[in-house]
Design a protein that fits this description.
The chain is built from twelve helices and twelve strands. Helix 4 crosses helix 5 and helix 7 runs parallel beside helix 8.
């Protein structure tokens, strides 16, 4: 059964206007997210992934600004909505789980207060109904003794518990799209596995689409059916997860996969990618990966490669394939 497009990003550009110059954090990104889709956006720190997520919700902090492009959600361009219309979209239609629950949750308010606010946005005022819904959503995200947890404060919860509360708040309004920005970065590997299993279950139960922002390809393989590789503000490869893991095309994607530890192999020094992530303030001319690429050609320094389809639903921006 074909799935309709839920979110479409067209030539999106989000820049930060600083004293040092213009930081091109998102520079001409095109992406589609379908209904019941799970898209992983992967790249090194500083490549613009989080700014892309914030742009979708129009939460880019000053001095950042969405310069141009379109963000179409259910056929409406979010960039043309009023502030009040956008507030309705946030939470009800699109929710976001931020990287660190310790800073995302307000330390002076109880779990009850922070969770109740989300349900009250739906017009639920009856105290008995409100409590029942809060207990139910906390139970759904795997929090034990939810009645007692409602009266606790963030500092009384473990990292895993706080992340579960964040997921509960994000899902309380039954959004159609969930953006998860590095949701397991601050957790140990055991809790990380539990949170990933929980998110996988909730995606099926709630019938929601997911954008997972991460640098961890292992997490993407667990949750996402599609992957977009981001480098220096641009999407450089995009396709089905199985296709990209089997046949990575861009030299950067190939290098990222080589750096993933293999359980079946004896311990050894992991391969590294030469150099540093390209500056978003002064990006290289041509292909932005060319200073680090082992397949460097003259044209790579001169012209930006087009984003072409090499095989069915597998696109790449690299002069090796044009």
């Amino acid at each position: 059964m074909s799935r309709s497009t839920l979110l479409r990003i067209l030539n999106l550009k989000t820049y930060y206007f600083t004293e040092e110059g213009i930081v091109k954090a998102v520079d001409g990104v095109n992406l589609d997210v379908n209904e019941n889709d799970a898209l992983g956006i992967v790249g090194e720190s500083g490549c613009g992934k989080s700014t892309l997520g914030l742009s979708i919700l129009r939460l880019v902090p000053i001095p950042g600004r969405i310069v141009s492009g379109r963000i179409e959600f259910e056929g409406r361009n979010l960039l043309e909505l009023t502030s009040d219309e956008m507030r309705y979209v946030r939470g009800r239609k699109i929710s976001m789980i931020f990287q660190d629950p310790s800073t995302a949750l307000n330390p002076v308010y109880s779990v009850r207060s922070q969770l109740a606010e989300a349900f009250q946005l739906q017009g639920i005022k009856n105290k008995k109904e409100l409590r029942a819904k809060m207990v139910d959503i906390l139970r759904k995200v795997g929090i034990s003794d939810p009645e007692r947890r409602l009266n606790q404060y963030p500092h009384e919860l473990s990292g895993g518990m706080k992340q579960r509360v964040m997921i509960a708040i994000a899902l309380s309004c039954r959004p159609k799209l969930l953006i998860a920005d590095e949701p397991t970065t601050s957790l140990d590997v055991t809790i990380e596995a539990q949170i990933l299993d929980l998110m996988k279950k909730l995606m099926n139960d709630f019938k929601i689409s997911l954008i997972l922002i991460t640098h961890n390809l292992g997490i993407v393989s667990e949750l996402c059916n599609r992957i977009a590789i981001m480098y220096a503000g641009k999407i450089i490869e995009e396709g089905l997860s199985t296709t990209i893991f089997r046949n990575p095309l861009h030299p950067y994607t190939e290098a990222l996969l080589r750096a993933v530890p293999k359980v079946e192999k004896p311990p050894s020094r992991l391969p590294t990618i030469h150099g540093s992530v390209a500056s978003l303030l002064h990006p290289p001319r041509g292909c932005r990966f060319h200073p680090r690429c082992k397949f460097l050609m003259d044209i790579c320094k001169q012209k930006e490669p087009p984003f072409v389809e090499v095989e069915r639903a597998h696109h790449v921006a690299c002069w090796l394939y044009t």
